[in-house]
Amino acid sequence: MIQAKKQKRSTSSMIEKFVPYLLLFVAVVSVLTTLGIVLTLVFETFTFFGRVSIVEFLTSQKWYPFSEAQGSYGILPLVSGTLKVTLIAAIVAVPIGLASAIFLSEYASDKTRRFIKPILEVLAGIPTIVYGFFALTFVTPMLREIIPSLEIFNALSPGIVIGIMIIPMIASLSEDALVSVPNSMREGALALGSTKLEVSLKVVLPAAISGIMASIVLAVSRAIGETMIVAVAGGSTPNLNWDVTSSIQTMTAYIVQISQGDAGYQTTIYYSIYAVGFTLFLFTLVMNLFAQYISRRFREEY
Amino acid sequence: MVQGKNSQNETVNKNIVYKTDQLNLWYGENHALKNINLDIYENEVTAIIGPSGCGKSTYIKTLNRMIELVPIVRTSGEISYRGRNIFDKSYGVEELRTKVGMVFQKPNPFPKSIYENVAYGPKIHGIRDKKILDQIVEESLKGAAIWDEVKDRLHQNAYGLSGGQQQRLCIARCLAIEPDVILMDEPTSALDPISTLKVEELVQELKKEFSIIIVTHNMQQAARISDKTAFFLNGEVIEYADTDKIFSMPSDKRTEDYITGRFG
Amino acid sequence: MVQGKNSQNETVNKNIVYKTDQLNLWYGENHALKNINLDIYENEVTAIIGPSGCGKSTYIKTLNRMIELVPIVRTSGEISYRGRNIFDKSYGVEELRTKVGMVFQKPNPFPKSIYENVAYGPKIHGIRDKKILDQIVEESLKGAAIWDEVKDRLHQNAYGLSGGQQQRLCIARCLAIEPDVILMDEPTSALDPISTLKVEELVQELKKEFSIIIVTHNMQQAARISDKTAFFLNGEVIEYADTDKIFSMPSDKRTEDYITGRFG
Amino acid sequence: MKMINHTTVIKRMKPRLIINTFFKALFLMATMFGLLVLGILLYRIFTQGIGHLNLQFLQNLPSRKAELAGIKPALIGTIWLMGVVTPITLLLGVGTAIYLEEYAKKNRFTSFIQINISNLAGVPSIVFGLLGLTVFVRALALGTSVLAAGLTMSLLVLPVIIVASQEAIKSVPKQLREASYGMGATKWQTIVRVVLPAAIPGILTGGILALSRAIGETAPLVVLGLPLFLAFLPKSVFDMFTVLPMQIYNWTGRPQAAFQELAAAGIIVLLLMLIIMNSIAVLIRNKFHKRY
Amino acid sequence: ACGASGNGTSNGSQTDENKTEQAGEENKQLQGEINIDGSTTVYPIMEAVVEEFGMAQPGVKVAVGTSGTGGGFKAFIGGSTDFANASRPVKDEEKAQLEEKGIKFTEFKLASDGLSVVVNKDNDWVDYLTVDELQKMWLEDGTVKKWSDIRPGWPDEEIKFYSPSTDNGTFDYFDEVILEKQPLVEKATLSAAPNVLVQGISGDKNAIGYFGFAYYAENKDKLKVVPIDNGNGPVEPTHESIESGDYSPLSRPLFTYVKDESVKKEEVYEFLKYTLENAAELSESVGYVKLSDEDYKKDLETLQGLK
Ligand SMILES: Nc1ncnc2c1ncn2[C@@H]1O[C@H](COP(=O)(O)OP(=O)(O)OP(=O)(O)O)[C@@H](O)[C@H]1O
Ligand SMILES: Nc1ncnc2c1ncn2[C@@H]1O[C@H](COP(=O)(O)OP(=O)(O)OP(=O)(O)O)[C@@H](O)[C@H]1O
Ligand SMILES: [Mg+2]
Ligand SMILES: [Mg+2]
Ligand SMILES: O=P([O-])([O-])[O-]
């Protein structure tokens, strides 16, 4: 019965030839997306630098784009806002994330780990607007009980909340790195009379360091790009200083502010969001490449 | 100074290091060690042989309580080390393990420098003095017969060493905490013949100072280097005696079958 | 109708199905098959034996060009199937493979129902008619001696079957495309003795209709079921002859050594 | 050589063990911190929002009067968005994964695509908003329509589904492919009939994760310029619309307590949607749990 | 025909007449889209209108943006919207651009607003501010401003400024009337969203800010409004003081601008008609002050002319 049918395959061989090209085309969409992002940003940023000098952009210490006539476009205050928030987030997330990772991989039983890890990961899946709301309506008022001078919009509260949001990234990825350290390493150390803590900190952690570093860099990159939390709870005052109690503006929050109203099409302000977006893109790109580099370059040798 | 029950040898004057008494061990439902009685003597090499899965590794890991890393393990019976029951609540595993070193089947150096590998033990035990550490590292590496090969690259990563060198490094790491007993679980099975020979020589050397218990698959090796041999089968000790006796006139048919390669 | 060069048998009247001529195969730099010459006859069971890594699987996979799934493979020489060189550009692999079925070492049913497993081949070859499909499925399952065991659960998942049943299902799946030759790569090595027996019986049955080439580690099996046996060693065919002859009076010392279990 | 004094070693044992216990407690507390915050967050939102959560809230249009306000357009808008994002991401994501796993040769171009995908995964969502604004809203003149937002979101979550699908395809055993080829199936037949069905659970799980991300994102939509007040339902993909996170953001911005509670109620609805979707993912994973 | 409807003063009579008049049309459900953008100050009125109109005409999709007056005009010039709400009259350059694009438009007044200066609830020192003090406070002069700089006896603490953004008509109005077009303090937190300003001021003891009266009215429990002294003693913005014009110079009219072409569409026409008919009531309900009936009547006549 089959032999008869075996002959007719011209359409199917057409498909065979055609499909790889179609799929290649589909696969290229992701490249086109990157290209689209880069071109969009570069193009409009270019227009922006036609109106504002790049030197001013990089060196001026004031960001005041609202006056078309005598605006001031120094990215540093926005960068400082972003860095403040990111730093606070890292200070919260790195120790807690690492401690959670160590607990889960070295101390917790299998059952505990299987129970806790997914719950922890829920934290990473909560929409950021929810965190923004939480920062503004819960964390800020709570912090103001402790620090009365804290302004309603500040760097501290969104920083802490972003930190909480990226805890599971660090915990989960670092835990993967720790778990992949072979047990023989732990046994070797335990057999020398080490306590569990010594095994974890002196043997396992150093052995997994590249995976851990990569997870931290990725999490920090995520913090840099975080938008809604800072837009809701961070304020809109670009400042070049290290004060975390006063209102700030991050690069992302600036883009949101302008997108919400102030962007008259083709004004300098309009183009400025692309210049800021481009700066942001570069920051995160460098971080991502760095994370890939360390996880590849310093891959553990065991 | 007590005559071991299973031991049919004549050396009555030696000190007993480990005394195993009615030891049973289960992995969950799996009864892996059954009624083990075994006395291990000081400054001897005791070999443990037997087919795969007979419980050799399980037994040797019980001696320094590494077996407790497997959560489903239960034991009954007693093992006393130097007269003290190691299962005693008051006996800290860390304390036991500083006296009982262990070398594993696959070399498992830490991903650190050679120096740091050896200095790891002394450091965690509180030795900070750089000079003393240097000295310990040197002595230990010499003790493990690897000093000459690595003395010029102490601060390079241990993973640059060959498998045989790594295994001797692990022995050096073990010597650095100045243990009393050294447990070795098939320490040469991952090594080439020449490295194996070196490790075997080393074991002969070490027994002057330490008591050594070695698990091996290799009958010839057991015959070559051990003073006593215990033959395990299905979680039981079938025969335990002087190595010469075991290999020349085993008293149990199964021992003989195993030694002559009829199974295993 | 040509007498195979290596074959020292007397059956000259049988048709040659596969003629392998000066076949060489490399995995990158690894020369895995060296100068293979081998003629396979119609309606016979040809067994391929040899120690691990000698190239048995490589050879059998070359016969239906499955070997091309490994990207680094290069070949030279010629294999003709029914007189046509299978390496010919114009020869579609799909066409070849519908004529040459294959059964693998580990049973590998699709994660679909029993019915769908068997109907898979006919369907991809364009048969849509439900009645015809039903018929093919039944015939094939009967042909693979598994119909009675599964006829009441045709639409249950194939992974509910035992290993032996799964393997026979895979054979049925292979029968469903009505092949001319069936290649089997250690089809029983993952099975228990009883299932093995069933598959062996089946092979005896199948050779009435198909030509079968079977790789096996099990000498007894080769002796039991095959008409001809080829002994591979290090990528070469050392000896190829009637099975009776190979097992009673091998002409090569190495064949004898292997058959008597002196190595491998 | 006797450089290690075993009695001091044993004396030092105790503090070391205490430190060990102390740190264990510390690590446990750190782990619990995350869970605690999650608990507080959910508790706060539920107690704040539960009062507004009723059928009327789901059926009403947004209103300037808090007691009348509802989330219908946002809810429907979110479903519309999912309707656009799902087919696009599945098609692009699975297609890319098949290409990379089954067809692509291991060469520089392939690894370039791969690196590109992991970088794309790290691009902040707001930058995707800028892309969408420039390309879809302005250049293609789609305005702030469902389609423009859906395309933007699709690109945003594309890396998630590509990577998940790749993993799923990779985990289909080689033997299944061999069996299919062995019967004379072509590559495409093998992919469609054997590989994809076996990879479906992983792909669907990835798809749901991607979709969860898409319906929770706010920033790119703000950049696209979705309108603040919208009291109608979209009828086609070219209509303007709003989504749950935007509506929540809108209410969060209002100082009055009643709107804060509305925001909390909206968040509950959003979280419920996410929980349902993730439960489906878990169900799929369990149902299809690898049989081979 | 529409002119007749303007006679009723009460809203009730208006709708009554509408009913009879539109008996035919009422049943006819309109379809279509209306795009509105612009002033945040006008937004509360528009929001109310859209909501009410939506109940009568659910088939008409009205989207309201709040880009601020400037932003609204930019969108209007861009051609993407039918209405531009404004809290100041259209500027000459905007007019020019509209002309250039060939966009004809008509201005409609909706209500009067009293631009309100507000401080934190806990601010117990500010009793009123003179226009001069306001100017001194809000003018950029390179110094850090403290409350004690404004009036002796006030706390020696830095003032925190919250202002609408430069795209807001409110900013323009304030800038023009109080600062006489000089730059505003750069340290100010600028936001196009008045609600953000409300949140900021209500959370900051040393804050001061300003925006449309509706936003104060909505948040009376969180904010304290500052009476303004323009030489005739401090006047607090209230319904009466705005209506009477006593609250000066910060009283101002609110507008919406419609694209003439759009009015040709029935749904836009009906929407605008509905807006004008109900502006009085709805603007009062959100806190603004309605215009005289004459004004609305005139507006409706103008609308009639555009049809
Ligand atoms: N972690 C474990 N969990 C459960 N069972 C185990 C575990 N480790 C070993 N076993 C079981 O205990 C028995 C003894 O195992 P053990 O590893 O001690 O054998 P062995 O003599 O060392 O074998 P080999 O020579 O292969 O190393 C075996 O049946 C094994 O399956
Ligand atoms: N995919 C591959 N890539 C590279 N080398 C391979 C590959 N498959 C097999 N080889 C090499 O080719 C040689 C022959 O392998 P093959 O699998 O044919 O042996 P075999 O006789 O089937 O052995 P076994 O009895 O273990 O199945 C071996 O040296 C093997 O290492
Ligand atoms: Mg073992
Ligand atoms: Mg093989
Ligand atoms: O939003 P405005 O009313 O200030 O333009």
UniProtKB/TrEMBL annotation, chain A:
The chain crosses the membrane at residues 21-43, 85-107, 119-143, 155-178, 199-220, 269-291. GO terms for cellular component: plasma membrane. SUPFAM superfamilies: MetI-like (SSF161098). Residues 79-291 form the ABC transmembrane type-1 domain. The keyword Transmembrane helix applies. It is found in: Cell membrane; Membrane. It is a multi-pass membrane protein. GO terms for biological process: phosphate ion transport. GO terms for molecular function: phosphate transmembrane transporter activity. It comes from the Bacteria. Keywords: Cell membrane, Membrane, Phosphate transport, Transmembrane, Transmembrane helix, Transport. Belongs to the binding-protein-dependent transport system permease family. CysTW subfamily. PANTHER family: PHOSPHATE TRANSPORT SYSTEM PERMEASE, PHOSPHATE TRANSPORT SYSTEM PERMEASE PROTEIN. Part of the binding-protein-dependent transport system for phosphate; probably responsible for the translocation of the substrate across the membrane. This is Phosphate transport system permease protein.
From TrEMBL, chains B, C:
It is found in: Cell inner membrane. Pfam families: ABC_tran (PF00005). GO terms for cellular component: plasma membrane. InterPro entries: AAA+_ATPase, ABC_transporter-like_ATP-bd, ABC_transporter-like_CS, P-loop_NTPase, PstB-like. Keywords: ATP-binding, Cell membrane, Membrane, Nucleotide-binding, Phosphate transport, Translocase, Transport. One of its GO terms (molecular function) is ATP binding. It is a peripheral membrane protein. Residues 12-259 form the ABC transporter domain. GO terms for biological process: phosphate ion transmembrane transport. Part of the ABC transporter complex PstSACB involved in phosphate import. Responsible for energy coupling to the transport system. This is Phosphate ABC transporter ATP-binding protein. It comes from Cytobacillus depressus. The lineage of its organism: Bacteria, Bacillati, Bacillota, Bacilli, Bacillales.
TrEMBL record, chain D:
InterPro entries: MetI-like, MetI-like_sf, Phosphate_PstA. GO terms for cellular component: plasma membrane. It is found in: Cell membrane. PROSITE patterns: ABC_TM1 (PS50928). Residues 75-281 form the ABC transmembrane type-1 domain. Coiled coil: none annotated. One of its GO terms (biological process) is phosphate ion transmembrane transport. One of its GO terms (molecular function) is phosphate transmembrane transporter activity. It is a multi-pass membrane protein. SUPFAM superfamilies: MetI-like. CDD domains: TM_PBP2. The chain crosses the membrane at residues 21-46, 79-100, 120-141, 147-169, 190-215, 262-284. It comes from the Bacteria. Keywords: Cell membrane, Membrane, Transmembrane, Transmembrane helix, Transport. Belongs to the binding-protein-dependent transport system permease family. CysTW subfamily. This is Phosphate transport system permease protein PstA. It comes from Cytobacillus depressus.
